[in-house]
Design goal:
Helix content: 40-55%
Number of helices: 2
Order of helices and strands: HHEEEE
Largest sheet: 2 strands, antiparallel
Radius of gyration: 15 Å
Shape: globular
Structural class: alpha+beta
Length: 90
């Protein structure tokens, strides 16, 4: 984002069992590391990371090809300022 000066989009797609859920977990962890350390920021980071297991508990199921198959789509909108501080996440 800083190099290009433009909004960025990440789309994770692939066949069943290809690792989309795991890739999204790594992306969330990376974003959480990038957004710094300040009072409210730490709360946002914690909520961001902790929301994943809750969503998986209600939206994942065992299938023939995958023991933890996501049965839902996930859309996340994040806004950062020029200092790469997270302003909000929806």
């Amino acid at each position: 984002m800083m190099n290009e000066g433009r909004d960025q989009c990440v789309l994770i797609s692939g066949e069943s069992g290809s690792g989309k859920t795991e890739a999204s977990k790594y992306l969330l962890q990376y974003l959480a590391q990038c957004i710094g350390h300040a009072g409210k920021v730490d709360v946002v980071k914690d909520r961001l990371i902790q929301s994943n297991p809750v969503l998986e508990a209600f939206g994942n199921a065992k299938t023939n090809r995958n023991d933890n198959s996501s049965r839902f789509g996930k859309y996340m909108d994040s806004e950062f300022d020029h200092a790469v501080s997270c302003l909000h996440i929806n």
